[in-house]
Design a protein that fits this description.
It is a single chain. By secondary structure, the chain is mainly alpha-helical. The longest helix has 121 residues.
């Protein structure tokens, strides 16, 4: 019988070691899972920060681009307005010159008509 008691003791020791190993394994798995969660949380936090920075840089670039476009459009419109004013002034000047020429032609025509009438009346 001592032999069976010894075997039972050995079996109890082995079961104890197996239980101890399983507990250690479970603790190691739990620790690994916790480490993974922490790492995942840190990676996610860094990813969010990177995305936020990238979006902010994109917004800044878009804003600068839009401002440059607005400035270019403003300058272009100002140039167009100045050219338009110049063109209008030139048209006004041309109309004045044409009015002077028309008046001169009307006067010349009136004189010619008067001369022709005088010549016709003399004959």
């Amino acid at each position: 019988m001592p032999k069976s008691t010894e075997q039972i003791d050995i079996l109890i020791q082995q079961v104890g070691r197996l239980t101890e190993g399983l507990v250690e394994f479970r603790l190691a798995i739990t620790e690994s899972i916790n480490d993974f969660k922490i790492t995942q949380s840190e990676v996610l936090k860094e990813f969010r920060q990177t995305i936020t920075e990238t979006l902010n840089e994109f917004k800044t670039a878009q804003t600068e681009s839009l401002n440059e476009f607005k400035q270019a459009q403003t300058e272009s419109f100002a140039e167009f307005r100045e050219e338009f004013k110049t063109d209008i002034a030139e048209i006004k000047q041309t109309l004045k010159e044409q009015a002077v020429i028309s008046a001169s032609q009307a006067e010349t025509t009136s004189r010619l008509v008067a001369i022709v009438e005088k010549l016709v009346a003399e004959k």
